[in-house]
Write a sequence for this structure.
């Protein structure tokens, strides 16, 4: 099953002689539980592509299908809603609110969607535990290292149970050690939790841990490489009752 798919996606900016074609017909697909890396030089169109895949912008022509629904055909309000509920974003610059604690930053997407503060905080706590920051939940971003801030950002992306996580240069502002830790967390989310992930990177070392790599040049897919055989991963299901609960 394709969680995300683009069909002949084109994006241009400007008019007349000033018109620039950033994307010139991109076809790609992302399977459930797959980690896809998008690589390309500055100006290749990879960041523009990510904004279209995330429904932040719409293509000039073509389709972007998330779980079979064309984002390009939606209204702005409809795309805002689907981003809030089905797409998790991780940015190079973390994008945390400095006046909110780690837990409050993570719980914010849920509260914006109408979840009660108590339930949102409980879910945020579980996500912070998942990324190893349960003991830092009450710290403001300014009291966290860069690597810790990015882990908070990952927890925030995951808290909505997204269909897909889109990461834009997630290690770009980190040193080598913290960058490796972030990539290990992202890889574990795919392998152990079945998360679907697309990341844009300029770092071949980061791209090497993805299942597939798509190379973009001059607004087109130049080539594609497969790094590993993609295993069939079990669907995530809620744990059933224990033996004692079944016999109670």
């Amino acid at each position: 099953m394709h969680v995300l798919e683009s069909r002949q996606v084109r994006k241009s900016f400007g008019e007349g002689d000033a018109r620039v074609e950033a994307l010139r017909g991109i076809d790609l697909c992302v399977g459930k539980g797959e980690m896809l890396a998008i690589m390309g030089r500055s100006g290749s169109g990879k960041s523009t592509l990510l904004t279209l895949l995330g429904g932040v912008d719409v293509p000039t022509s073509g389709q972007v299908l998330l779980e079979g629904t064309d984002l390009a055909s939606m209204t702005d309000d409809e795309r805002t809603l689907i981003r809030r509920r089905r797409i998790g974003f991780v940015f190079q610059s973390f994008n945390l609110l400095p006046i909110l604690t780690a837990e409050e930053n993570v719980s914010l997407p849920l509260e914006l969607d109408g979840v009660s503060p108590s339930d949102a905080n409980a879910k945020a706590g579980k996500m912070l535990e998942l990324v190893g920051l349960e003991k830092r939940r009450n710290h403001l971003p300014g009291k966290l290292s860069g690597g810790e801030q990015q882990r908070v950002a990952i927890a925030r992306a995951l808290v909505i149970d997204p269909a897909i996580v889109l990461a834009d240069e997630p290690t770009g502002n980190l040193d080598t050690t913290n960058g490796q830790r972030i990539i290990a967390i992202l890889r574990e989310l795919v392998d152990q939790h079945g998360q679907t992930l697309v990341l844009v990177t300029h770092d071949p070392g980061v791209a090497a841990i993805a299942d597939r790599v798509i190379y973009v040049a001059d607004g087109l897919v130049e080539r594609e490489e497969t790094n590993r055989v993609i295993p069939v991963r079990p669907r995530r299901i809620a744990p059933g009752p224990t033996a004692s609960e079944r016999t109670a």
